[in-house]
Every structure is written in C-alpha cells, then in structure tokens.
Design goal:
Blueprint lengths: L2 H31 L13 E2 L2 E2 L3 E2 L4 E9 L6 E8 L2 E10 L5 E7 L4 E9 L2 E2 L3 E5 L1
Length: 134
C-alpha cells in the first residue's frame, strides 16, 4: 500500500476515534436537555386529585377520601391534611399510592362543623374537599 495513503488512513482513523467520544457526549447532552412537549415547554407537573365518599357524617363515623396521583411514582407517600385555624395540619392518616397511582384513605373526624381537607405528597397538594361533621 502507498505510504502516503497508509498515513492518511491512520490519521483519519485517529481523528475518528478522538471525535467519537465528543460526538457521543454531544448527543447525550442534547437528548438530556430536550424537554417533552411542543416548542420546548416544560414537562407537565405532577398532580393529586381528591374526593370524598360522603358530604356529611356523624362525629367519628368512617368515610373515605379517594383520588389519583398523576405523574408521581407508585409508592409515593400521601398524607391527609385538615385546615385548622387557617393552617394546614397533617392528620395521622397516610398511605402509599398503589401501582395504579391511586389511593384510598379511611377517615374519621370529630371536629363538628365544616371540615376542609386535602391530600399532600410528592411535593404537591390536591384540591380541597369538604365534609360536614354533625
């Protein structure tokens, strides 16, 4: 083989080997920077929904708060919160979301009157639900 041709092939292969990691790193950086959604909009945020099985209960009567977790991993811990004196207070009612990204909490309340509650977990909170305890 021609020595000039051998040198050119060796030089070209060396440049290719040096450029390959750079190209791979560039490709990885461009895919990790890519944002889902049209025109580079940020990814949708996780959400929690909540609803109660009843509107009104007697004091200490059991009811359920059910809902779904969207864009949160299964097994995310969710906690029931109650509005008390204009502050959200964690109640001792918790569970992990199921594989189907849902939850189903059993609740008993003793505070008479209108009770406002929500679900918190995974850095997000749900809508507020209302139950009247009579």
């Amino acid at each position: 083989m021609n020595p000039a041709l051998t040198r050119a092939v060796t030089l070209g292969a060396g440049l290719l080997l040096m450029a390959s990691p750079l190209a791979a790193a560039s490709a990885l950086a461009s895919t990790s920077d890519a944002k889902p959604g049209p025109a580079g909009q940020p990814a949708p945020r996780p959400t929690l929904t909540a609803k109660t099985t009843v509107d009104s209960v007697k004091a200490w009567q059991q009811f359920r708060v059910i809902g779904a977790a969207t864009r949160l991993p299964a097994g995310t811990r969710v906690t029931l919160q109650q509005l008390q004196h204009k502050q959200w207070v964690d109640l001792p009612v918790q569970m992990s979301t199921t594989r189907a990204h849902s939850y189903n909490l059993r609740v008993k309340l003793g505070l008479k009157g209108l009770n406002k509650m929500r679900i918190a977990g995974g850095g997000v909170v749900s809508n507020t639900v209302h139950v009247t305890v009579r």
